[in-house]
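Ticket #4471: structure export looks truncated?
Reporter: QA, pipeline team
Priority: medium

Steps to reproduce: submit the single chain below to the structure queue and open the exported record.
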Amino acid sequence: MDSINTIPIELTVVLGTASMPINHLLKMGRGAVIELDTNADDDVMILANNTPIAMGEVIVQNDKIAVSVKDKLASRNS
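Actual output as written to the record:
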């Protein structure tokens, strides 16, 4: 079981998406805001190694941000 603890997994939470020309992106400075195609209370997609695994919701408490898993997505291998 120790060897399973050494497998690297990259977790990504997708809050939303946006499209813009690359020249617009390159002109943006520090602190620039990019408007996403979602609302603050929409579910987020949770990815493991770029594979969707679950849906969740963002939770903010004091100065901490977390993601709560709401639904596990069906595996493509099952």
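Status: closed, not a bug. The export was complete when the record was re-opened. Leaving a note from the reviewer for reference: The two ends are 23 Å apart (CA to CA).
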